[in-house]
Amino acid sequence: MKKLLLPTLIVAMGFGGAYAGSKVSKAMPTYHIEEGQCVEVQQECNEQPGPLCTLNDDGVTQLYKFKLNETTCSTALSRSN
């Protein structure tokens, strides 16, 4: 019984490490106002205080966390470091 415990534990740790390493970081859905519409984009931002998160394409368009309705975005986000 003891001879099986250590190899089983090592294999389980290996699977756990492989699973943890395989998780890919996905950008949270973020939103911006485009031609009066709140449009979703995938870009890394966070909710911590700091410089405003802007659209990578132009560096000016502010990004938000929520889409309240078709024409309103809410809760400004900060840049991810």
Automatic annotation (TrEMBL):
Residues 1-20 form the signal peptide. Keywords: Signal. It holds the Pfam family DUF6520. This is DUF333 domain-containing protein.
